Amino acid sequence: MVAAGRLTVVVGASQRLRDEAVAGLRSGWTGPVRRLVEPGEVEGLLIGLETPSLFGDSELLLVRADQRWLAKHQDRLLPHLAQPVVAGAMLLLVDQLDGRSALAKAAAKAGALVATDGPDDRSLPGWLALRLGAHPQGCTDLHRLTDILVRRIGNRPDALLAAIDLIALACLPGPLRQAEAEALVAGEAEQPLWELSGAVLEGRPADALRLLHAPQAAEPPQVLGALANEIRRLIACHDTKDDAEAARQAGVRAGGAFFHARRRAARWPRTALVRLLSGINQCQRQIRRGQDPLTALELLVLHAQRLAGPGRR
Fold first, then answer.
1. pLDDT tens digits, residue range 158-195?
2. What is the DSSP string of 71-135?
3. How far is residue 193 CA from its own chain's centroid?
4. How many CB atoms are located within 10 Å of the residue 283 CB?
5. Residue 85: inside a domain, yes or no?
6. Per the domain annotation, does 250 fall within a domain?
7. In terms of pTM, does the model score above 0.85?
8. What pLDDT was estimated at residue 186?
9. CA 304 to each of CA 153, 194, 217, 222: distance values in angstroms, whole numbers, following the listed order
10. Residues 251-310: pLDDT tens digits?
11. Residue 279: CATH number of its domain
């Protein structure tokens, strides 16, 4: 078993990432494994860590606990850190751990603290792309799949990994594909507006037109409103490097989505974004004057394609 000693603390908010860490830590353990949740009787369990059993193999204990349980039993746990495995062993699984606590400091000093923190917003796309690229079924459309999952689900590792499982099941026995991801995760039938605005602003007119005509597609005013909001976000990215100020200018919340907006804004000159925003205003006026809404939107998509062409970037 790969562990620092008879007691190892595994901390992280993601159950899936904790489970992966536990799988590595328990590899090579040939004895029985017992799972417990905040056990009331601790002394007997700790005795089993230091005294070989006369009636069977020693156990590996997987103990789920919260902060209150840790505070109550911390003094009993501390002596078992940095001690060799002579009988049983314990993996203590917690969602969070106060770094100022005696247990956290002692576990870190003993090399018995395993943190399974997920990626932050900035590193999320790279982390997810590595997971998709390493999938045993393989993966086509890696960057599109990553984009779909990040935009639809956000920085929730358990939900992202569950979505990958679902897409993989739908694609059996072949590689993970964009079409299944869109159908299962992006919810094409419900016309996610971020997906449509992304297609327009990333120079994918065929995708944009397909989404415009999808079943249960959003109404034209909703589409134009969502696209205008995203363009204002990109313009704000050109105007300031400060996320908080850019979010204030665009009237949105700063965060991971703003990081992706900056990447998208880098593909567009500010003048082209202003022209596209003006095109949205013209499209709205044309619809109010009686032009067919879908025809007006189709023309807007083609207008965006011309503005985003190779000569304009």
1. 888 888 988 888 888 899 998 888 777 655 434 467 77
2. HHHHHHHGGGTT---SS-EEEEEES---TTSHHHHHHHHTT-EEE-----TTTHHHHHHHHHHT-
3. 20
4. 22
5. yes
6. yes
7. no
8. 54
9. 27, 16, 20, 18
10. 765 544 567 788 788 888 899 999 998 888 888 888 888 888 888 888 888 888 888 765
11. 1.20.272.10
* Residue 49 CB burial class (10 angstroms; 0-12, 13-18, ≥19): buried
The tens digit of pLDDT for each residue in 114-133 reads 999 888 888 999 999 999 99
Query: How distant, in Å, are the alpha carbons of 8, 135, 157 from that of 140?
Result: 39, 11, 21
Tell me the residue range of the domain where 22 lies. 7-115
Contacts of 15 (CB under 8 A, 6+ apart): 158
Distance linking the first and last C-alpha atoms of the chain: 54
**152, 186, 220 - which closes a domain:** 186
Tell me whether the omega of the peptide bond preceding residue 173 falls within 30 degrees of 0, making it cis.
Answer: yes
C-alpha neighbours within 13 Å on the C-beta side of residue 32: 9
Q: Are residues 247 and 262 in the same domain?
A: yes
CATH number of the domain to which 64 belongs = 3.40.50.300
> Are 88 and 136 in a shared domain?
no
pLDDT tens-digit series, residues 54-92: 666 778 889 998 888 988 998 989 888 877 777 888 999
Identify whether 263 is part of a domain. yes
pLDDT tens-digit readout, 6-56: 889 999 888 889 989 999 888 878 888 889 988 888 888 888 777 776 666
